[in-house]
Amino acid sequence: MPLERGQHDLGGLPGGPIDLEEHELLPWHKMVSAVFTVMRLKGELTTDELRRCIEDLPPDIYDGGYYERWTVALTDLMVEKRLVTRDEVDARMAELRAAREAAE
Amino acid sequence: MTGDTHDHGHDHGGGPVLTYADDSVHDRNETGHFELLADALKELSIEKGLVTATEVREYVEFFDSRGTEKGAEIIARAWTDPAYKERLLSNGTAAAAELDIPMAGAELVVVENTGSVHNVIVCTLCSCYPRTILGLPPDWYKSKSYRSRAVNEPRAVLKEFGTELPGDVALRVHDSNADMRYLVLPKRPAGTEDWPEERLRELVTRDSMIGVAPARDPA
Q1: Between A and B, how many residue pairs show a Cβ–Cβ distance under 8 A?
Q2: Sequence ranges of the domains in chain B
Q3: What is the pLDDT of residues A17-74, one digit of tens each?
Q4: C-beta of residue A33 within 8 angstroms of C-beta of residue B40
Q5: Three-state secondary-structure class, residue B214
Q6: Which chain A residues contact residue B19 at CB under 8 A?
Q7: How far apart are CA B14 and CA B8, in angstroms?
Q8: B36 vs A contacts (CB less than 8 Å)
Q9: What ipTM was assigned to the predicted interfaces of this complex?
Q10: Residues of B133-152 as b/e, b for ≥16 C-beta within 10 angstroms?
Q11: Fold of B69-210
């Protein structure tokens, strides 16, 4: 049996025209990159580990935006390494959402 | 093999063409869900002592400040200093370190464009890019179209960037990975023989160091 091609393994597949428009990064894109980079430099996690988590994402997330992919994969990796728990993340998101809605 | 050649999920005539409405350039964050997740991760990481708020802020500043200047510095040095160019082509990581440019754990391989060979860089598997040299990658570099097509129809891809290569110029495509990053040493533009290094830097563009375009024409 030939190996099944992973969703990340795009080389040589047919594709459409390339969108050459340049976009500014949003502040949260840079922030999540910075959180990852600092943890990588401290040896908490590695680039290859994040790459594996990106490759293992559910297809709908993998097909989403680049930093969305990164953020979900970083969460998965931090949970896997027991740096945080899923419950802590969910609880903090609920708090932040409530605080944001109260401010609106 | 089962001998069944008609039911294996792809046909070679009109196979599925990847769609790009879902691509990296499109932010599906309308509801704020992913930004909220990123904020939660940051706060928890700080509270658990994994990172400090200062470290995160400093790296955001670093991303904001780092463009393609370091790359231009490397290329202009190689154009004007043959001994440096030789070191750069034989050990890119060490030659970058000479200019105080770190490679953040990956090896740097520099490939030279000449009258007979043109090089272009891609990362088909993700979006590996020499960030410490060129800053954060442009959206198109991360797009599925570029990642999929750059390896099997690179001349057509270059044409979309306005770059038409003569048929007798060999085209080499280099696929980066998490441990190895490539940088293209573009051809030095004609008519710049007496230019000093500082002025040459202005001709070195991001796209010329990825290989999708030549260096700027001095004219």
Answers
A1: 186
A2: 29-65, 69-210
A3: 999 988 888 999 999 999 999 999 999 999 889 999 999 999 888 888 889 999 999 9
A4: no
A5: coil
A6: 16
A7: 14
A8: 93, 96-97, 100
A9: 0.92
A10: bbbbbbbbbbbbbbbbbbbe
A11: Nitrile Hydratase; Chain A (3.90.330)
